[in-house]
Each structure stands twice: as structure tokens, then as C-alpha cells.
Write a structure and sequence with these properties.
heterodimer, A: about 110 residues, mainly beta, six-stranded mixed beta sheet, four-stranded antiparallel beta sheet, 12 strands, about 0% helix, about 50% strand, globular, B: about 110 residues, seven-stranded mixed beta sheet, about 55% strand
Chain lengths: ~110, ~110
């Protein structure tokens, strides 16, 4: 069965420090991986995706993610966190050959401390 | 370009009633998906429509139904509401049905069943 795991419910980081939000996946075949962010009382905003090619993907608002096939991971990173980055982050996967639905992780709440 | 619009934003209904939620996708997008978000279950896929055809359906009871119109607007209906149906319902649209095509989400409709 396809699944996505976000092992940390919450990540705290000081403003200006680098941040990492972890995601691992389990799918058959080559995955299509996505990161979304959700601010309070809002929908999900697309940050970035990995389809194929370079393992380091750059996205919106200075975020990037590294695809690691051997570790089946797709961790979200940012070199310098901002207080405004505080939000709920979701990792999602689609597996070719299956339905087009996203399989989402449980979400990680990022709190950036001033 | 206008984003995905969901109406209404908030809804309070009584157990046993039915409700209809509306979603207007981004202009030109023909794929519309619906997700239910709850604190306990996270983000769960409800259905996906493409050019007025339901292509995929999640594991929800038959009380949950949907449709898509020729202008790509979509509605979902929940009949005989239960307390457990209280959730944020999110609609997402995509420009195509490719696995690597990101979806854009609306702000959601928060349904409270009392």
C-alpha cells in the first residue's frame, strides 16, 4: 500500500536558522512527490514537486527539497527560517499507474521562534 | 488569474440534514478533486472529476456524492449528516490529469454538524 510518513508532529526552529521537515514515502514504482503548506483557516498552497531529474528541487518562498531514492525520503529544507514560515506542512505522493489522488502525510507543524 | 473558489466558507448544519458545497476551479482547469480534512484522519480523498466524469472515488459512504458541470464547476453533496462529517472540505483543481501536475486548492468550506 502507498503511504507517506511525516515522523515529526512539530518542529521548532529559531529564526535565521536552517530548517528541515522530514518526509518518507512508500510507493510502487517511481513516485511523484509534492510539498504543500497550510496557514490557519486556509487551503493548501503548493510549494514544490519532484517528478524526475535533479534530486534537489527548488520551490516557492526559498524552500527546497531533496529527493533520496535509496532512503525513500523527500525532506523539505530552507537555509534561513522566517517567523512567517510558521505553518502546517504536508508531504504528498502520487504513484504512476494508480489513481490521481494525493496520498498525504499527517502534517508537520513548523514553529519559527523570533 | 483567480484561484479556486469555494462557497460557502462556513456552514453549520443539524444532524440528519443534507448539504451542498460548491467549487469553482481555476479558469481552464478541467480536473477537480475533493478532500476532507479532520484533526483525527488528516487529509482524505473524496472524489476526482475530469470533464464531467468521476474518475476516482475515495473510501467514503454513499452519503457523499459529487458532480461536475460542463464549465468544470463542481459540487459535492452530503446527505443525512452525522456529527463525524464535521470537517474542512477542500477542493483542488489541476490543469491536466498528469501525475506530475500540481493541484491548486481553495480555502475550503468548514462544515460543522451539530
Amino acid at each position: 500500500a502507498q503511504s507517506v510518513a511525516q515522523p515529526e508532529d512539530q518542529v521548532n526552529v529559531a529564526e535565521g536558522n536552517p530548517l528541515t521537515v522530514k518526509c518518507t514515502y512508500s510507493v510502487s514504482g517511481n513516485p511523484y512527490l509534492f510539498w504543500y503548506v497550510q496557514y490557519p483557516n486556509r487551503g493548501l498552497q503548493f510549494l514544490l514537486k519532484y517528478i524526475t531529474g535533479d534530486n534537489l528541487v527548488k520551490g516557492s518562498y526559498g524552500f527546497e527539497a531533496e529527493f533520496n531514492k535509496s532512503q525513500t525520503s523527500f525532506h523539505l529544507k530552507k537555509p534561513s527560517a522566517l517567523v512567517s514560515d510558521s505553518a502546517l506542512y504536508f508531504c504528498a505522493v502520487r504513484a504512476p499507474g494508480g489513481t490521481y489522488k494525493y496520498i498525504f502525510g499527517t502534517g508537520t507543524r513548523l514553529k519559527v521562534l523570533a | 488569474k483567480a484561484g479556486v473558489t469555494q462557497t460557502p466558507r462556513y456552514l453549520i448544519k443539524t444532524r440528519g440534514q443534507q448539504v451542498t458545497l460548491s467549487c469553482s476551479p481555476i479558469s481552464g482547469h478541467r480536473s477537480v478533486s475533493w478532500y476532507q480534512q479532520t484533526p483525527g484522519q488528516g487529509l482524505q480523498f473524496l472524489f476526482e472529476y475530469f470533464s464531467e466524469t468521476q474518475r476516482n472515488k475515495g473510501n467514503f459512504p454513499g452519503r457523499f456524492s459529487g458532480r461536475q458541470f460542463s464549465n468544470s464547476r463542481s459540487e459535492m453533496n452530503v446527505s443525512t449528516l452525522e456529527l463525524g462529517d464535521s470537517a474542512l472540505y477542500l477542493c483542488a483543481s489541476s490543469s491536466s490529469q498528469g501525475y506530475g501536475t500540481e493541484a491548486f486548492f481553495g480555502q475550503g468550506t468548514r462544515l460543522t454538524v451539530v
